[in-house]
Write a structure and sequence with these properties.
The chain has 119 residues and is mainly beta. The protein has a single domain, classed as HesB-like domain (Hypothetical Protein Aq_1857, Chain: A, Sandwich), CATH 2.60.300.12. It contains 2 helices and 10 strands, in the order E-E-H-E-E-E-E-H-E-E-E-E. The chain has a 5-stranded mixed β-sheet. The chain has a 3-stranded mixed β-sheet with strand order 2-7-8. The longest helix is centred in the N-terminal third of the chain and has 12 residues. It starts with a strand and ends in a 5-residue tail after the last strand.
Length: 119
């Protein structure tokens, strides 16, 4: 595990940080926010957002607006540079992601794809 300070960190908007802090305060075991991806959906990957209750050697740790963000090394290449926002529209509320690595999202908005690595 390493504390990472990259030029393209993962960040939260003020609204997202406020919502996350409120969410984490309800879970005594939480140490921060876990942001990850999993293979799914029509486009390839889906965002996973949950309370982090422990850290592993596979985690990179970022801090944004007083919130620690834990990202596993497999998800990091797809998430680096992402800004996470929290939006309420009428009765709906959700996290929205400004992800510079995302090439396209599916029609339902639940998944995204990234460019294939040429390495």
């Amino acid at each position: 595990m390493s504390e990472t300070k990259l030029s393209t960190e993962i960040t939260l908007t003020d609204k997202a940080a406020e919502h996350v802090k409120s969410f984490l305060a309800k879970n005594d075991a939480s140490i921060g926010l876990r942001l990850a991806t999993k293979t799914t959906g029509c486009s390839g990957y889906q965002y996973i957002v949950e309370a982090a209750e422990q850290t592993t050697e596979q985690d990179e740790i970022f801090e944004s607006k007083g919130v620690k963000i834990f990202v596993d090394k497999l998800s990091l290449p797809m998430l680096i540079g992402t800004e996470m926002d929290y939006v309420r529209e009428g009765l709906n509320e959700e996290f929205q992601f400004k992800n510079p690595n995302s090439q396209e999202t599916c029609g339902c908005g639940e998944s995204f794809s990234v460019a294939e690595s040429t390495e």
